[in-house]
Amino acid sequence: MSVEDFFPPFAPGEPDDNGGRSARRIPFRQIVPNLVTILAICAGMTGVRLGFEGRYELAVAMILGAALLDGIDGRIARLLKGQSRFGAEMDSLADIVNFGLAPGLILYSYILNDAGSFGWICALLFTSGCALRLARFNTMLDDPNRPKWHGAFFVGVPAPAGAGLALLPMYVGFIGPDLGVPEFTAGVSAVYLVFVGLLMSSRIPTWSGKGAGLRIPRSYAIPIILVAVLYIATLISFFWETLTLSTIAYFCSIPFSWREFQKRSRRDMDLADRRDDEATVSH
């Protein structure tokens, strides 16, 4: 008996470094990004446990930690040249757990249960919106006709950002203001959660931070660094207040990303029409 008799091979069907299909050994660098993804799943699930135990601040921190790990696992894979289809599929499964299931359960435990069945239905809708967003993202990766500049945008709010937006009622609650009647606050939070789920499953373009090729004047470099330092210092000193303002700033950025996407789309259409006109004249 051997290990192969109990466990299937890692990423079956994918070619190895030599082009083979049934290699017994794989580079360890292909495993490292998946370990990071597993750690993200553990963080998300631990957040659910902490939420059930009433330790809500730590629960939110775990979701934010999972988002951080989600942001670096792909970069680690590209850095180590350890990308694989297996890793991409695991990343999607981790996202639905960490940013669809976990935030909905934590919010339900924190406030939505005061809205009864309505709160639970809204949590289900949020998780469903996240699942639809991730399924669409995976199918769009295989689109050969997708323009390269589309890499600068997500279609809909990405799952980690959606989880961060969804937790806004908790940020506000941690700051400490009295939000009034619990049932009313829970109902408003439930409707807000559905709104975030709709943003995730929508076709609204949002900045991705990838592939934009953004260049800035040299004279802007130092002010931008100072602003980044100021943000980090403010985040450390006034964590929940800064997250609340960051959430509002993200919402404010959506119209600008939508406008920029439309501008680039019209530019592509104008170029296509110009080529068609030139082709017609040449004939």
From TrEMBL:
InterPro entries: CDP-OH_P_trans (IPR000462), CDP-OH_P_trans_C (IPR012616), CDP-OH_PTrfase_TM_dom (IPR043130), CDP_ALCOHOL_P_TRANSF_CS (IPR048254). The chain crosses the membrane at residues 31-52, 117-137, 149-172, 184-200, 220-239. Belongs to the CDP-alcohol phosphatidyltransferase class-I family. The keyword Transferase applies. It comes from the Bacteria. Keywords: Membrane, Transferase, Transmembrane, Transmembrane helix. Residues 220-255 form the CDP-alcohol phosphatidyltransferase C-terminal domain. This is Phosphatidylcholine/phosphatidylserine synthase. The keyword Transmembrane applies. Residues 1-22 are annotated as: Disordered. Coiled coil: none annotated.
